[in-house]
């Protein structure tokens, strides 16, 4: 397998974006229609925020804008909330030439499931946690690859998991992989029970799980 894979090799060049001035109701419709849970908020080509489905739904419920069946036939409320009024902070960024190890570090450090690839200040793509793991991102801080046996085990866990939705509305493979250090102890990866990306997976009942799932 290649050891020089970069962000450019795996990023989604087509992704869903909205502007700060877009009506929140329209953005919520886009979330539903495309089957995704996050939109990138753009100012020109610059990533300035993110809109999650929970944030959008919560804001619409607060102002009573959630449409009932058939309500879409009438005129839209132009005075309703906008994307900019409820958006969250921008997602972490990487450059297209960064190694996938950089992506994983951002995902774990920021507690997010995707990053935005930025070139010359412009958003040019998105990489999800599933993208990084499926491409064989390194699991250690110095960028070293795990053994071939470990990679085979990771590939098997990928085949057994179901799909999750990516930022572009397509299905990304959920990866139930974990990594180990030189002593064989679990380090960081994706929990095989809940799917969360965690820095300290441990083995329990034959699975690599996060501390929360281990205590259940």
TrEMBL record:
Zn(2+) binds at residues 191, 194, 210, 213. Keywords: CBS domain, Iron, Metal-binding, Zinc. Residues 87-147 form the CBS domain. Pfam families: CBS (PF00571). Residues 186-216 form the ACP-type MB domain. The keyword Repeat does not apply. Residues 152-185 are annotated as: Disordered. It comes from the Archaea. Residues 174-185 have a biased composition (Low complexity). One of its GO terms (molecular function) is metal ion binding. Residues 152-161 have a biased composition (Basic and acidic residues). Fe cation binds at residues 191, 194, 210, 213. This is Cyclic nucleotide-binding/CBS domain-containing protein.
